[in-house]
Amino acid sequence: MEIIIKPTAAELAVVAAEAICEVYADNPAAVLGVATGSSPLPIYQELSLRVQAGSLSLRHAKAFQLDEYVGLPQDHPEAYHNFIRREFASITDIDPNQVYGEDGLAADLLEECRRYEQAIVDAGGIDIQILGIGVDGHIAFNEPGTSLNSLTHPAVLTAQTRRDNARFFSGDIDKVPTHALTQGVGTILRARKIVLLATGANKADAVRDMVEGPVSISCTGSALQLHNNVKVLLDEAAAAKLERQDFYREIYANRPQGAWLGL
């Protein structure tokens, strides 16, 4: 992991966007993994600015969602395919028909998961994946206890996750779905590069466990320690409980300019 600590989410979004632009400079048809929730929104805004400025184009790109709620109507504003189209596709130049997600209304959810996993493989895999992390250390909807080898699968959402997501449902936890379809930890680890953004003091425990704790199903984000091309982007509050902050700052300050570090 390369740990990057900056004061604001806006500054972190610039670092993330630079990493994504680097991928698309090499391959205009690269496959982007997109995430939902509040964490990636500054990244999407930064990508939009670069598309408008002409320094980035996603016209030839494909994108795959991390996850989707089970059972929400197609037109529900919090269905993740609507979130991604609203917050990402509509503000960039990517073809909306090239943005793919799991079908949370599929009659056979296991078959839908197999289909989606194969679709990612058929596209050549994810070139760069955007991630956030939950307060309990989960990535995508891989809740604590999920196998670190898991592929796309149906997931039961914990009460903690549903409480955290209730803010998107008028604060009513009873409106938050109890199940989702999600890329597995193993699916995520197949991405060639990963950018994870976490901000706020409520993420500090999860960040500490992800970066400095043991690799464990208790914190599925800790599996990212096994990947050799991960940028972990943190504000000061999210990084507050890391014991080796000075080391991470020194490594970042002395890295080769623009380089991905496989540490």
Automatic annotation (TrEMBL):
Entry keyword Hydrolase: yes
Name this polypeptide is given: Glucosamine-6-phosphate deaminase
Residues in Glucosamine/galactosamine-6-phosphate isomerase domain copies: 9-212
BP-aspect Gene Ontology terms: carbohydrate metabolic process; glucosamine catabolic process; N-acetylglucosamine catabolic process; N-acetylneuraminate catabolic process
Molecular function terms from GO: glucosamine-6-phosphate deaminase activity; identical protein binding
Functional summary from the UniProt entry: Catalyzes the reversible isomerization-deamination of glucosamine 6-phosphate (GlcN6P) to form fructose 6-phosphate (Fru6P) and ammonium ion.
NCBIfam families: nagB, PRK00443.1-4
Recorded metabolic or biological pathway in which this protein acts: Amino-sugar metabolism; N-acetylneuraminate degradation; D-fructose 6-phosphate from N-acetylneuraminate: step 5/5
InterPro entries linked to this entry: Glc/Gal-6P_isomerase, Glucosamine6P_isomerase, Glucosamine6P_isomerase_CS, NagB/RpiA_transferase-like
Signal peptide region: none
Keyword terms: Carbohydrate metabolism, Hydrolase
